[in-house]
Amino acid sequence: MRALTPLPYPPARRSGAVLALLTAAQFLVVLNTSVVNVALPAIGSDLDAGQAGLTWVVGAYVLAFGALLPVGGRLADLFGSRGVFLAGLALFAAGSLAASIPTGAGPLIAARAVQGVGAAAASPAALALLLAQSPPGPVRGRALGLWGAASAAGGAAGVLLGGVLTDALGWWSVFAVSAIATVPVLLCAPRLVPRDSRGRTGPLDLPGAVVMTAGLVLLVYGLGTRDGSTVLGLLLPAAGVFLLLNLGSIERRAKNPLIPPALLRNRSVVAGNLLMLPLGMVWLGTFFFLPLYQQKVLGHGPVTAGLTQLPLAAALMGASALAGRLRGTLVPGFMLLAVGLFWLARLPLDGAFLTDLLGPTVLIGLGLGLAFVPLTALGVTGVDPDHVGVAGGLVNTTRQVGGALGLALLGSLAAPAVGTAAAGPAALAYGYRRALVGAAVIAVLAAIGAGAHRRIDARADQRIDVGANTRTSKPIAEKEPS
C-alpha cells in the first residue's frame, strides 16, 4: 500500500471557492433525485409511459446512484479523488443531455441510469476532496454543514424547479438545465481543485462490486415487476437476496474489500443502515406519489404542485438543523412521519391545500428531518477514522437503495388501481392511498425497530466497562445518537 501524501490545506479564500464548487456539484446530484417528480405526468403523456415506466424514470437514477456509491468511493481511493470527480461529473452531464432528448421511455430510463452512475462517482469523490480541503475542527464542521445544507436544498429545490421548468418549457428542460449547470463546474474544477496524491496500489474489489450491484438490481427490478406471482417474478428478487447474502463471505476473502468487514461487526453501523433503509423507502415514495395525486386527481399544474410542497421542504430543513442540536429525536421522528403519512393517506378527491395537504406534509417533513440526522450519525458512530468515508458512503447507499425498494414495493400496492390507462381520479386516489398507508406502516415498524435498538444498546452499555469500551474514542460522537 502506497503511503498517503498529506495535502496542505489551502488558503481560506481558495478553500472557500473549492467548497462552493464541491457543494454545487452535490446540489446538482441531489437535485436530480426530485426534479423529475413533478414532471412525471407530462413524461407519461408525451412518451406513452405507464405507471411502471414512470417508476423506473425515478428508480433507475436512484438505484444506479445508491448501488454504486461504495464503488465510486473506492475508485477515488485507487485513482485519486480529483480525477474520479471530474469523470463522474462528465458522465453525469452526458446522461443529463441524453435524458433531455425525448426519444422514448426506454432511452430516457437508460439515460437516467447513466446519470446515476456519474453521480455515484462524483458525490463520494467530492466529499473526499472537501475533507482534504478542510482542516479538522470548526472549519471542517462548517464545511460539512454546508455539504448537508446543499443536499437538503437540492432535494427541496428540485420539486419547485421541476414544476417551473415543466410548465414553462416542457419536461425535457429539467434534464437540459442539469446538463448546462454542470458545465461551469466542470470547467472550473481543474483550475480550483488541486491534484491529490492520495491512492492505494491494491486492486478494486471487482467481485464484491459486481455481486453487490447485481444483487441490488435483481432485487429491486424483481420487486418492481407486476409479475410477482410468476416464476420469473419470484426468481429475480430471490436471486438478488442470494447474492447479497453471499456478499459478506466474498468481502472477507478480498484483499481490499469494498466494505471492510469491521463495519459489519459494528452494531451502530448495522443499526444505522437497517433503519436508514425504511426511511429511504418512505422518503422517495412520498415525493413520488404526492405530485401524482396533486396533478392527476386534484388537477394542479406543475408549478402549483411544486409550490405546495415548499412547506414540507422547509420543515425538513428546519428539523434537520434542530436534530443536530438535540438528542433522542429518532423514534419521535419516525412516529411523526407515520402520523403525517396516515393523515395524508386520506387523499380526498376534492382536497384543498390548507385543510388536506399543509398539516400532514409539514409533519412528514419534520419526521424526515428528525430521523435523518441521527441515522446519518449512527451510521458512522464508533468507526475507525480510516473507514469513516466508507461508512458514510454505505449509509447513503442504504438510503438511495431504500428509495428504489420503496418505489418498487409501494408502486406494487398502487398498481392494481392506477396501472390501467382508463383509471379515473377515484381509482388513482385509491391506488395512491394504498401506497401511502403502506409507507405509514413502514414508518411505524421503523419506529419500533429504533426503540428496540435504543433499549438493547442501553443494556449493552451497562455491561461494558467504559474504560475498555473502544467507543469512548469515537471520532464522531461520544455516545451513539438515538
Automatic annotation (TrEMBL):
GO MF assignments: transmembrane transporter activity
Gene3D superfamilies found in the cross-reference section: MFS general substrate transporter like domains
Keyword Transcription regulation among UniProt keywords: no
Chain ranges of the Major facilitator superfamily (MFS) profile domain: 18-455
Highest taxon above the source species: Bacteria
Coiled coil: none
GO CC, any one term: plasma membrane
InterPro entries per the UniProt record, alphabetical: MFS, MFS_dom, MFS_trans_sf
Keywords from the UniProt entry: Antibiotic resistance, Cell membrane, Membrane, Transmembrane, Transmembrane helix, Transport
Bilayer topology: Multi-pass membrane protein
Protein name stated in the entry: MFS transporter
Organism: Streptomyces sporangiiformans
Lineage: Bacteria, Bacillati, Actinomycetota, Actinomycetes, Kitasatosporales
